[in-house]
Amino acid sequence: MTLTTTAAPTAVVFDLEPAAQRLARLVGGVPDARLGAPTPCAGFTVRDLLAHLCGLTAAFRAAARKQPHPEAEAGAAPQCPALPADWRHRLPRQLAELAESWHRQEAWDGTTAAGGTTLPAGVAAQIALDELVLHGWDLARATGQAFDCDKPSLQVVYALLAPEADNPARAPMFGPVVDVPYGSPFLDRVVGLGGRDPKWSPGV
């Protein structure tokens, strides 16, 4: 998909490792019997979501390293690529490599390419963390696992999503904002800004 955002480049270097490690643990808790189950991502099964995660972790690892990636050459990543047979090993490895790649100062310098577009490296890092957090929540909900996100990661994602909430040109990747009740937990507010209903369950 093509990524667009009006968010200003972040001057703050943050750590993607907590979100990457959390997502790796969630991947390890996915039973084979749930691969065909629905997720909060409309039209995505757990299998589709895992395949998407395989692609995006490779893409944002390449973005951090300022390396070419097939999605950039094609203009956009495939919507639902096939899930690799080795996903249980590949995804945790790519998540660790993704986090490690963004530990390097040069990853944050200048611009990079992700999702078929060129953008400030700091914004690419924000989008990468947004993907890890929101899709981690998606995967947890779809597979009946607990999800508890660290506050620094939520703050970075909120800073990316909040300015887009009333933007008529809001990127399709975010989905329509879901209003949550006043006083809701910070996680629910971030999830709602990301186009998810905090009350979603596989039975809905």
Oligomer class: single chain
What is the total domain count? Answer: 1
Radius of gyration: 16 Å
* Count of helical stretches: 7
Largest sheet report: 2 strands, antiparallel
Average pLDDT confidence is: 87
- What structural category characterises the helix and strand content? mainly alpha
Give the SSE order as H and E letters: HHHHEEHHH
CATH architecture: Up-down Bundle
Helix content: 40-55%
- In the sheet with the most strands, the strands line up as 1-2
CATH class designation = Mainly Alpha
At CATH level 3, the topology is Four Helix Bundle (Hemerythrin (Met), subunit A)
Shape: globular
Q: Describe it for me?
A:
The protein is built from seven helices and two strands; from the N terminus they run ααααββααα. A two-stranded antiparallel ribbon has the order 1-2. The longest helix has 23 residues, at 121-143. The chain has 204 residues and is mainly alpha-helical. It has one domain: dinb family like domain (Four Helix Bundle (Hemerythrin (Met), subunit A), Up-down Bundle). Helix 1 runs parallel beside helix 5.
What topology emerges from the helices and strands here?
Blueprint: H1 17-28, H2 46-65, H3 70-74, H4 87-101, E1 111-114, E2 117-120, H5 121-143, H6 151-161, H7 186-193
Antiparallel strand pairs: 1-2
Helix pairs in contact: 1-4, 1-5, 2-4, 2-5, 5-6, 6-7
